[in-house]
Design goal:
By secondary structure, the chain is of the alpha/beta class. It has helices spanning 10-19, 32-42, 62-73, 87-95, and strands spanning 25-27, 50-52, 81-84, 99-103, 115-116.
Length: 128
């Protein structure tokens, strides 16, 4: 398995969200079993309540993967944020009704969405 990059401050930010009882879902281009192994190998599984990997042979569809997480959590898309460094993922999420935010620490260039500059900004999504 390749080495995975975990950005500085991400674990602390996710811990703050968890402490605030914010439910976190993760989507992946990888198949579920690979995605699960990846988050387990980084220790991020303790933050993720729902994980949606791409079914074998299926095309990457970020809105469909995020909708699968929403079905588990039973929240409407408009009450949920999709944070990604990929502008195409954010466009798909926006079309599906998500509040979309660029992960500035992972984005190659601005794509016109509100931008979080660093992982430590994640907890600001839910207020004090």
């Amino acid at each position: 398995m390749k080495r995975l990059l975990i950005h500085d401050g991400l674990g602390m930010a996710l811990d703050q969200l968890r402490a605030g009882r914010v439910e976190i879902g993760a989507i992946s281009r990888e198949q579920h079993r690979v995605a699960r192994r990846q988050i387990e190998s980084t220790g991020l599984e303790r933050f993720v309540g729902a994980l949606s990997g791409t079914p074998e042979g299926a095309a990457w569809a970020p809105a469909a993967r995020a909708a699968e997480c929403l079905a588990f959590f039973e929240y409407p898309a408009a009450e949920c944020a999709l944070v990604s460094g990929e502008v195409s993922d954010l466009r798909a999420g926006g079309e599906a009704g998500f509040v979309c935010l660029e992960a500035g620490w992972a984005a190659s260039e601005p794509g016109g969405f509100p931008r979080l500059l660093r992982p430590a900004d994640l907890p600001t999504l839910v207020g004090p």
